[in-house]
Amino acid sequence: MKIQIFGAGGMLGNELIKQYPNFDFSDINNTINYCDIRDYNEVTSRINQYKPDYIFNFAALTDLEECENNPHNCYLTNTLAAINLFEKCKELNIPYIFISTAGIFGNEPIDTFDEDYLPSPLSHYGHSKYEVEKYLKASTYDKWYIFRAGWMMGGGSSIDKKFIEKIHKQIRKGKTELFVVNDKAGTPTYTKDFANSIIKHIQNNLPFGLYNQVSTGGATRYEVTRFMLDYLDYSNIILTEVDSTHFKNEYFANRPQSEILLNKKLDKLNQNYMRNWKVCLEEYLNEYYK
Predict the structure, then answer these.
(1) pLDDT, tens digit (0-9, with 9 covering 90-100), for 206-252
(2) Helix (H) or strand (E) run with residue 176 in it
(3) Fold (CATH) for 2-288
(4) Which of 43, 130, 186, 192 shows its CA 20 to 30 Å from the CA of 149?
């Protein structure tokens, strides 16, 4: 099984290569070779040279504020490049794996979303991912998986660019008080579980299609931080609850009130391998931060 990963240097790609060192990935000996997925000719050359059995697209521009400031680059990277990779898979008659996001929903009057709920993105980032979902679903070529992820965590301080590392970075800098929002909810999603699940799905012949794939359970940013501080025994640090307006200048992109996904389709097929977010966060903290 030859797997060509685009975006192998990120949180998810790093975890996949780490967990499956004997697999035939395109990045030989874990050496990450840069490839601009917006460059169609370069991408085509890489694919033709490697001749993969699967293409995993983990490459994305995920900084919401950067996407708002530069929407052209956002759609080139997250939408057009992703669609081009899909078309190459169609040409080669091989499966395509695309990672979408819980951030494709808006401020709906519900708190949890399964695969049947119609997205209504609030940001350029959310729109850029949802456009790919719509394109794949409308195609006559059906050898594709879309896995929607939650609030990703994994890889430790050298890899993790998301919430857990941002909080711990403040702690390392000697912060004695943390201000954390309590009006946005989601599901911390462990890259280790996510990567393992993708491989299991391929090995177990999961039907092609779109799936929510997040750790189970849900929480606000404040609740995640509280759990993290208690587990690491940072009793000297004050945790102060704020709402999103507290960071309106730094984090100005529109975000949903809730990004809690339900793995309804995986549960129905009895192929949900994602654990509870608290179990995963404990394991993650033990490995990198304890």
Answers:
(1) 999 999 999 999 999 999 999 999 999 999 999 999 999 988 888 88
(2) none
(3) Rossmann fold (3.40.50)
(4) 43
